[in-house]
């Protein structure tokens, strides 16, 4: 059986973890949720650092925990990257990497050269951790984790200690891992921008439970979740850069069902990108509107509708071909426009973030 099956129940005074998850064997799964919802605890259960009685954990067919079986942490082929890189201060970067390699008991999946190259740390090998920036330390920590030939990589808010500029510098390295390695990653975060950029699958957690688990695009477009995502409610779509209008520094990206003009991010024509469209940036009109500053106007069909977090607001799912979009409107305008499932409309998109 492929994939990750994880079932844990833990009762602590004031907190209960109760999850039963089926996660994909490939790509990045984001564990997303507010502080204290149990993301780290779930990761620790997976790592075997926390023992949930009667828990079950199976990774691509291998049982790490069952009623009868418990694999101790040091026998689990996993890499664990924490918020702050825990490198050995007395060793150089190379010494730290070699330490990772010593633990290997099986055929190595990632070579030293490959790990150094993927994380861009060749120029740091002779340095000691104290002489590295926070982002560089994290890159070394990830390279070290990769060198243990993990079958699963656990990352607990690896960017939390970095400022925005460092975080943006760091993201491409995580994206490269994603593109070039076949090791599933479980990635804890409460930052929606990290989810939008890195995740393929998302588990939304609340008070010790997984309230949703599914592919990113589909799950973010669910109407019962945006209420919890608040201002960040919106969709992420896979797209391709199709053309460029150099005079205006704009690029046209196509996605399943349509295309949009966005600020040119410098990506090559044909490059795969993601676009993120927040529900608050989408408005609806019954006719194609002209004489507006909004550049992106697409025809769509109204899908489901739901109440939002405030009684004045509603959420509407729109379908542009097979791609979903969410719009946050006042309930009054939804009624005045006579919106109902199946109705054809025009959507105006005020802002699109191009990711990657
Ligand atoms: N060893 C423990 N014993 C009892 N309660 C604990 C223990 N470890 C954590 N908790 C509690 O379990 C809950 C979940 O904590 P956890 O660290 O998993 O949350 P989190 O979602 O990772 O939060 P954050 O985003 O702030 O890191 C919290 O209420 C925490 O206080």
From TrEMBL:
* Occurrences of domain Mop (ranges): 291-356
- Gene Ontology, cellular component aspect: membrane
Specify the domain of life of the species encoding this protein. Answer: Bacteria
The answer, when asked if Mitochondrion is one of the entry's keywords, is no
All copies of domain ABC transporter, residue ranges: 1-232
Q: Which UniProt keywords apply?
A: ATP-binding, Cell inner membrane, Cell membrane, Membrane, Molybdenum, Nucleotide-binding, Translocase, Transport
Any single GO molecular-function term of the entry would be: ATP hydrolysis activity
SMART domains, per the entry = AAA (SM00382)
One Pfam family per UniProt: ABC_tran
| InterPro entries linked to this entry | AAA+_ATPase, ABC_transporter-like_ATP-bd, ABC_transporter-like_CS, Mo/tungstate-bd_C_term_dom, ModC_ABC_ATP-bd, Molybdenum_import_ModC, Mop_domain, P-loop_NTPase
Protein name, per record: Molybdate ABC transporter, ATPase subunit
Specify the taxonomic lineage. Answer: Bacteria, Pseudomonadati, Pseudomonadota, Betaproteobacteria, Burkholderiales
């Amino acid at each position: 059986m492929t994939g990750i099956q994880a079932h844990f129940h833990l009762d602590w005074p004031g907190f209960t973890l109760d999850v039963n998850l089926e996660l994909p064997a490939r790509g990045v799964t984001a564990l997303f949720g507010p502080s204290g919802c149990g993301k780290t605890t779930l990761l620790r259960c997976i790592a075997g650092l926390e023992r949930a009685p009667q828990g079950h954990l199976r990774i691509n067919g291998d049982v790490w925990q069952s009623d009868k079986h418990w694999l101790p942490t040091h026998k689990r082929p996993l890499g664990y990257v924490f918020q702050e890189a825990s490198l050995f201060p007395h060793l150089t970067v190379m010494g730290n990497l070699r330490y990772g390699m010593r633990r290997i008991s099986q055929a190595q999946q990632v070579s030293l050269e490959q790990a150094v190259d993927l994380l861009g740390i060749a120029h740091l090998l002779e340095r000691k951790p104290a002489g590295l920036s926070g982002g560089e330390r994290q890159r070394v920590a990830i390279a070290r984790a990769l060198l243990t030939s993990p079958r699963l990589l656990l990352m607990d808010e690896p960017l939390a200690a970095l400022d925005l500029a460092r975080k943006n510098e760091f993201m491409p390295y995580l994206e490269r891992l994603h593109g070039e390695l076949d090791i599933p990653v479980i990635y804890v975060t409460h930052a929606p921008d990290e989810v939008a950029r890195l995740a393929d699958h998302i588990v939304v957690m609340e008070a010790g439970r997984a309230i949703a688990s599914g592919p990113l695009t589909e799950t973010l477009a669910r109407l019962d979740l945006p209420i919890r995502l608040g201002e960040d409610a919106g969709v992420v779509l896979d797209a391709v850069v199709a053309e460029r209008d150099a005079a205006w520094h704009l690029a046209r990206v196509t996605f399943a069902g349509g295309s949009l003009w966005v600020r040119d991010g410098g990506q090559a024509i044909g490059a795969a990108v993601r676009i993120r469209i927040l529900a608050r940036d989408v408005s609806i009109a019954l006719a194609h509107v002209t004489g507006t500053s909004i550049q992106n106007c697409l025809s769509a069909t109204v899908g489901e509708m739901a109440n939002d977090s405030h009684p004045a607001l509603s959420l509407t799912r729109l379908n542009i071909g097979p791609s979903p979009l969410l719009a946050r409107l006042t309930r009054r305008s939804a009624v005045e426009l006579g919106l109902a499932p199946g109705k054809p409309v025009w959507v105006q998109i005020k802002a699109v973030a191009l990711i990657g």
